[in-house]
UniProtKB/TrEMBL annotation:
The chain crosses the membrane at residues 39-66, 78-97, 104-123. InterPro entries: MFS_trans_sf. The lineage of its organism: Eukaryota, Fungi, Dikarya, Basidiomycota, Agaricomycotina. Keywords: Membrane, Transmembrane, Transmembrane helix. This is Putative transporter MCH4. It comes from Grifola frondosa. The gene is MCH4_0.
């Protein structure tokens, strides 16, 4: 059985009860499998979301230095805020992963955006 660029291969399915065979079509080498503009815009959107999320978490040291200099609390007490923030970023993945798979991406984006902006307003001295 030879596979050429214009032919297809049928693979018999021994354990299948309803399907007798599966047809595999060769991939056109010129079109590629990159998904086009929509796929690359998704990659860019994911990068921007990650940049904003982890950028705020990584910049917590600036807030910690400010609050320590003001003398409102000790550095160890303030560091709990940053630790909890980073923990919640990963822990919320347990819930948001299920919602994302269920198709609630846009709802989560809107709710997250509002919560993010509200949180930054609460951080201002």
């Amino acid at each position: 059985m030879q596979l050429t660029q214009s032919s297809s291969v049928e693979i018999p399915m021994n354990d299948a009860k309803e399907v007798d065979s599966v047809t595999l079509e060769p991939v056109d080498s010129q079109s590629g499998m990159d998904g086009g503009l929509k796929a690359w815009l998704t990659v860019v959107g994911g990068w921007i979301a990650g940049f904003c999320t982890f950028g705020a978490a990584n910049s917590f040291g600036v807030y910690q230095a400010l609050y320590t200099l003001e003398g409102t609390s000790s550095a160890s007490n303030i560091s709990w805020i940053g630790s909890l923030q980073l923990c919640l970023i990963f822990a919320m993945g347990i819930l948001t992963g299920k919602l994302f798979d269920a198709g609630y991406f846009h709802h989560m984006q809107i709710a997250g955006m509002l919560l993010y902006v509200f949180s930054h307003f609460l951080l201002s001295p």
